[in-house]
Amino acid sequence: MIQKSGANSGPELLVELDRAARRPLRAQLEDALREAVRSGRLPANTRLPASRALAADLGVSRRLVVDAYAQVSAEGYLLSRRGAGTFVADAAAASNAPAAAAPRTAPRFDFFPGYPDLAGFPRRAWMRALRETLRDAPDRAFGYPDPRGATELRRALAEHLRRVRGVFADPESIVVCAGAAQGFVLLVRALRAGVRIAVEDPGLPAHRAILAAQGARLVALPVDERGARVHELAAAPGAHPPDAVLVTPAHQSPTGVALAPPRRAALLAWAAATGGVVIEDDYDAEYRYDRPPLGAMQGLAPDRVVYMGTVSKTLAPALRLGWLVLPPALIDAVVSEKTLADHGCPTIEQLALARLFESGAYDRHLRQARRRYRLRRDALVSAVGRHLPGAAVTGVAAGLHALVRLAHEVDGIELMRAAERHSVGVYPLGYGYLEVRPVHDAVVLGYANLSEPAIEEGIRRLALALAECPAPGARLRRSRSPARRASGAPAQARRRTGARSPGSDGRSTRPCRGAPDSG
Ligand SMILES: Cc1ncc(COP(=O)(O)O)c(C=O)c1O
Questions:
Q1: pLDDT number for residue 500
Q2: Tell me, what's the pLDDT at 4?
Q3: Rg (the chain; Cα; Å)
Q4: Nearest 5°: phi and psi at 328?
Q5: Mind giving me the DSSP string for 314-371?
Q6: CA gap 232, 228 in Å, rounded
Q7: Which atom of ligand 1 is nearest to the CA of 203?
Q8: Other C-beta atoms within 10 Å of 143: how many?
Q9: Whole-model pTM?
Q10: What does the alpha-carbon distance between residue 154 and residue 149 come to, in Å, rounded to a whole number?
């Protein structure tokens, strides 16, 4: 019979003893300890359970455990520190353990557009909110969550979104989800597989991939300097109109333009006329520097617009918290999908977030962050002016990233490779298109997670990388095959941009210039 340990107090250790075996129990325990250290299951400096606790766990005498520890210590696997316990010895640990995966070397100057200032996370305010939540939350808060989200958070969100974004929200229309990413999953499932969604082109490949993976059929909606060309939504003769349109009206991702007021009106008119749904991804609207505020579209047509928000840009993507404000017709279906997906988001973090809103700490954090980001934005604009003559920075009146139009076209893969050699992470615009464009005349640069000196140095290095890039021509011909395009980008850049071969994120839909697909 195999006896397992692991249920007693103190550090736990899974040890199996076979009482039916002929090998004595003490020898079995010694074998198990040696094996656990050698294999790396017990890394260096791990404290072992106290001999009394392990003995009780295994149903053996304490003497047996003490002797086994002594033997294995004598062999150099363990060492005991008086008064502190028995530990895995440094030298012995993991001598046969598989090599840990090499840490991914992130570029030192990474202009990844998806990050806020990670060092600026309001740790103290968050810790205080968590501590107060743990102190005050009733016992029922530790049960299964409400799939719609904690009432306290939905109330706080409704108030915040009404006040700050002009969103027409009441707590009953809100579903808290694991970031915009899960919001997309829930929406497609609620709208049904096969739903046709027009997406801005360029847009965010990672989100298109999520939509497509849920069975949505994607249609390209081109973007120009006034935002998505919504007037092109009108169906071409014989084609199916989309059922929904995904837009980033406050700060188009990635071009940074705002959806012009007449186009906002036209999009809402389209929704009213066709019964279509507008999905408004308001991902970074909290950051606005030198342009007048633009309220959320949802406030103008709450019956037709799904409003989507997230803490990924205001606090941190690691929290995985976002929200949907839903038209009445979609609430039940989305709540049901959320229940099926995971029963609801973690309650404690939701309650802590509610406290941040209610205490004013969230607004205070945003005010500080805005000041810091404005300085970083200014640093980026002046560094580009200094180091990249002929380039133009656009899309910087709001948000946390810029679009930099280059003085000359480059092969995107060559640029990413050259930038990587200079430890710069750079994201060519061409990967944002449904049909990836290998020749790039612009790059998307997130500046929020880099200090001002780092921005200056990163742009200086980017200039060096650009100087090393061949003109698209000779090399470009090599990179034109889809297979090369998909595999040729440096791994890191591919992962970050979500770059993929054409068609892979759009199901079978072949994007066409704004007209609905005919598939
Ligand atoms: C366009 C856009 N929408 C939404 C998000 C946030 O996504 P999530 O809430 O899943 O982290 C991001 C983050 O970078 C984004 O770029």
A1: 34
A2: 63
A3: 28
A4: -50, -35
A5: TT-GGG--EEEE--HHHHHHHHHHHHHHHSSS-HHHHHHHHHHHHHTHHHHHHHHHHH
A6: 9
A7: 1
A8: 9
A9: 0.80
A10: 7
What HEC string does 219-258 produce? Answer: EEEEEECCEECHHHHCCCCCCCCCCEEEECCCCCCCCCCC
Contact 461, 422 (CB under 8 A): yes
Closest-CA residue, ligand 1 atom 13, reads 114
What six digits make up the tokens of 449? 């997670």
Tokens linked to 237: 């003769």
Instruction: Dump pLDDT digits (tens) for 475-492.
Output: 444 444 433 333 334 444
What average pLDDT score do residues 150-161 get?
98
Structure tokens at 235: 């169906």
CA distances (Å), origin 399, targets 7, 81, 380: 50, 54, 13
Q: What is the CATH number of domain 364-497?
A: 3.90.1150.10
Highest CATH level, class, for 2-88: mainly alpha
Task: Indicate where the chain has its CATH 3.90.1150.10 domain(s).
Answer: 364-497
**Centroid of ligand 1 to alpha carbon of 90 (angstroms):** 42
- Scan for tokens 């640069």, then name that residue: 445
Q: Exposure string (b/e) for 175-188, b if CB count within 10 Å is 16 or more?
A: bbbbbbbbbbbbbb
State the distance from the centre of ligand 1 to the C-alpha of 282, rounded, in angstroms. 9
Give the angle 405-410-414 at the CA atoms, nearest 5°: 125
Q: Cβ < 6 Å from ligand 1: which residues?
A: 114, 179-181, 204, 248, 253, 281, 283, 310, 312, 317, 322
CATH topology of domain 118-362: Aspartate Aminotransferase; domain 2 (3.40.640)
Residue among 490, 488, 504, 419 nearest 457 (CA): 419
pLDDT, average across residues 187-202: 95
- What residue owns the CA closest to ligand 1's atom 2? 283
* DSSP string of 156-178, one letter each residue: HHHHHHHHHH-----GGGEEEES
Intervals of CATH 1.10.10.10 along the chain: 2-88
